[in-house]
């Protein structure tokens, strides 16, 4: 290294650089070489990883971020957790991925707002030699190294079986869904509908209503459903925002208890309270903390030349008044305590 520094100083003299300029050149070379040596000793220490989520509207994403940052601390990497403000802003998410490419991050994880819209830009990420995994919502074409998420078809079926039991296998049931374009929205909807049709032929399913996972839109949509269908037996909501809006509408109309069955998806402090107050009968919860953690862990493994599984299921559990106080359940909902 010393020879290289001396050589550079000599070169600087020939170009008549000032003493401060020469010192800066020497400083830059020394720092660069020290970093290079340290990188070889512990390459993961300097990995820069972007996790592009679907948004920040719900507690779910903050818990995913907490899991990602826990992994970042354990593996000694830098994690930048980003996402658009709303889960309707596909263009913003595309721009964030483009920016990750331009920044030359070492690896990227994506929760696609729209599986088809994100496919071209994720292809660019792959072409740039950047390892990429998807979490929560996959990209079309099965092109990422791994998909780390809940088995949403199976989770939708869990919700359907509980709903069928609640309404005694008959009556009108509505679906308030967050998205018709993301894999989570599609699979949670289809998993529920397919299971209802297969096992509960006497249940009349209304056409799904889409609200972008927005609490206010879900509240308004539910009130409309109740006005149009006073004999409604149950409502299934496919994410946290939808479930909150549905619960709020049901509470406002005084349809708590056995008057109307409500099954949600995801969890938050608000949804736990709605379950405790008997406004919501149950909700299917995921493990967002592990989703974030395993996304970072998987990318670190890829960067270190290790193999990872193509599909990692983070699991789903039905939460009701019967198990809401269970320690393991509460740990999944509130990983850092309530």
UniProtKB/TrEMBL annotation:
One of its GO terms (cellular component) is cell envelope. It is found in: Cell envelope. Residues 50-307 form the Periplasmic binding protein domain. GO terms for molecular function: carbohydrate binding. Keywords: Signal. Its main location: other. The keyword S-adenosyl-L-methionine does not apply. Belongs to the bacterial solute-binding protein 2 family. This is LacI family transcriptional regulator. It comes from candidate division KSB3 bacterium.
């Amino acid at each position: 290294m010393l020879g290289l520094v001396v050589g550079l100083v000599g070169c600087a003299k020939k170009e008549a650089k000032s003493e401060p300029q020469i010192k800066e050149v020497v400083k830059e070379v020394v720092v660069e070489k020290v970093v290079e040596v340290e990188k070889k000793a512990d390459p993961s220490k300097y990995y820069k990883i972007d996790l592009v989520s679907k948004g920040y509207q719900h507690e779910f994403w903050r818990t995913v971020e907490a899991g990602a940052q826990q992994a970042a601390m354990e593996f000694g990497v830098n994690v930048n957790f980003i996402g658009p403000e709303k889960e309707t802003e596909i263009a913003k998410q595309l721009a964030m991925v483009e920016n990750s490419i331009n920044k030359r991050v070492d690896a990227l994880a994506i929760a696609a707002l729209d599986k088809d819209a994100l496919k071209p830009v994720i292809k660019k990420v792959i072409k740039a030699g950047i390892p990429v995994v998807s979490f929560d919502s996959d990209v079309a074409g099965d092109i990422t190294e791994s998909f780390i998420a809940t088995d949403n078809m199976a989770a939708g079926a869990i919700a359907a079986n509980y709903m069928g039991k609640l309404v005694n296998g008959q009556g009108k049931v509505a679906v308030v869904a967050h998205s018709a374009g993301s894999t989570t929205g599609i699979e949670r909807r289809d998993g529920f509908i397919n299971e209802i049709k297969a096992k509960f032929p006497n249940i009349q399913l209304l056409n799904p209503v889409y609200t972008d996972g927005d609490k206010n839109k879900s509240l308004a949509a539910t009130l409309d459903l109740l006005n149009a269908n006073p004999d409604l037996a149950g409502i299934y909501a496919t994410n946290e925002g939808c479930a909150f809006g549905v619960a709020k509408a049901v509470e406002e109309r005084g349809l708590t208890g056995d008057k109307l069955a409500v099954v949600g998806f995801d969890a938050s402090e608000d949804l736990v309270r709605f379950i405790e107050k008997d406004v919501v009968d149950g909700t299917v919860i995921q493990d967002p903390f592990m989703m974030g953690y395993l996304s970072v862990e998987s990318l670190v493994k890829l960067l270190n030349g290790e193999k990872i599984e193509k599909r990692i299921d983070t699991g789903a559990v039905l939460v009701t008044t019967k198990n809401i106080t269970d320690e393991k359940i509460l740990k999944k909902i509130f990983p850092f305590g309530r």
